[in-house]
Design goal:
It contains 14 helices and no strands. By secondary structure, the protein is mostly helical. This is DUF6545 domain-containing protein.
């Protein structure tokens, strides 16, 4: 068990330190934001608590200061009472108007302070300083009335804070306007629930000791619950800050992938009608993989593809479209897949006709840009991606067929 704690708790301390450093950036622009200050205090207290929870660290602290189980007191006061009150204060400022948040935060901090004073008093009265250090302070001393009272105060303060965090996060997570705030509140509720499992485990340990059972047999639950809890707490309480950047990165990656998938279709259209490119020097191979402003380049690519379809519209043979439709139906295609396949086969045939300088066959009202399924830009991109996918699959077949026909 000591080996597990020696790995899990330092990792949790590092996670808290990273969260603290990350949120320190916000002080430049939100110096007077009480929620930011509360989070910084919470991460600092929780980080110190996890550091002290590492067995070798707590032994060293007790030995250097000459006070047995002083490390345990620091773990409980900082990691249980202070951090839960600070986390709760931050959430209160997120979900309540400023004046109401101030009142709620003050009440909760006052209760936490009174609980901390009572715990310190009971710990001192228990006379732990005159005793040999306990490797598991709460579990090995739970049979003593003063320590039992100390334990009840600890789990009461910690548990009440986690329950209130869960209540607020679930209540306001449903109605939060910002997507990443809503996700952050839900993640925080999961983290608080995991911490509540640890609190219940400590409470059951008190009962188990009175019944003659050994709580150390299931002590593995302590590092597992604490590790899970702090992971989700850190993720949830920092998510409103880094979440929008993740959304922007996902959008850029999605646009880049769409840009690359449209390239074969655009490249053949550009070869047939170079005038569709607003900036010809962006047609090189390197520019494909270094597109710069990907949102703008994708927008230009969509426009240029539509311009290319318009140029090739006179070469699109209705007979080819009819044959393509029949073939697609025989292949059990339907809906957008069928329409995309018809568009792709007609386009591949039209490109062959233009490349060989065959005369136009007229226009087809069913083909060209008007056949797009969109209305919005997003729908337009999705439609062209379907056409590009179908075009990549049929262009070699169509070219081979055209050569055989001639």
């Amino acid at each position: 068990m000591t080996g597990v704690k020696a790995v899990v708790f330092p990792a949790c301390a590092v996670l808290c330190a990273l969260a603290l450093l990350y949120r320190l950036r916000d002080l430049r622009h939100q110096r007077n934001d009480p929620a930011v200050r509360a989070l910084l205090i919470a991460f600092l207290c929780k980080g110190i608590s996890f550091t002290l929870s590492t067995p070798s660290v707590s032994r060293s602290v007790d030995a250097r200061l000459g006070v047995a189980d002083l490390g345990a007191l620091g773990i409980h006061l900082l990691g249980g009472v202070a951090s839960s009150a600070a986390f709760l204060a931050a959430i209160v400022y997120w979900v309540y108007p400023p004046e109401a948040a101030r009142r709620h935060a003050c009440v909760r901090l006052l209760v936490a302070a009174l609980c901390a004073v009572a715990m310190l008093t009971l710990w001192a009265a228990a006379g732990t300083g005159a005793q040999q250090r306990s490797a598991h302070y709460l579990l090995q001393n739970a049979h003593r009335p003063l320590v039992a009272g100390y334990l009840l105060l600890y789990v009461g303060a910690f548990g009440a804070g986690m329950i209130e965090i869960i209540r607020l996060c679930r209540r306001y997570g449903r109605v939060a306007g910002r997507q990443w705030l809503r996700r952050g509140l839900h993640s925080t509720a999961i983290g608080a629930s995991a911490c509540l499992v640890y609190v219940l485990n400590r409470l059951l340990s008190l009962i188990a000791v009175q019944c003659g059972l050994d709580p150390l047999e299931w002590e593995l639950l302590t590092p597992v619950a604490n590790g899970t809890g702090i992971f989700f707490l850190v993720a949830g309480l920092t998510m409103p800050s880094w979440g929008p950047s993740v959304s922007e990165l996902r959008r850029r990656v999605r646009n880049f992938v769409a840009y690359q998938r449209l390239h074969p279709l655009w490249s053949d259209l550009y070869a047939a009608a170079p005038d569709i490119a607003l900036n010809p020097r962006h047609a090189g191979r390197l520019a494909r993989f270094l597109p710069g402003d990907i949102s703008y380049r994708l927008y230009r690519r969509v426009i240029e593809i539509q311009d290319g379809l318009l140029v090739l519209r006179p070469y699109m043979d209705p007979a080819v479209a009819t044959g393509a439709r029949e073939s697609a139906e025989e292949a059990a295609l339907s809906g957008d897949q069928l329409h995309a396949m018809v568009q792709a086969r007609s386009l591949a045939s039209a490109l062959c006709a233009k490349h060989e300088n065959r005369p136009p066959v007229g226009t087809s009202a069913a083909l060209g840009p008007e056949a797009a399924k969109g209305g919005s830009y997003t729908e337009e991109v999705a439609w062209l991606l379907q056409v590009a996918r179908a075009y990549t699959a049929v262009r070699t077949i169509v070219r081979t067929t055209e050569r055989k026909v001639r």
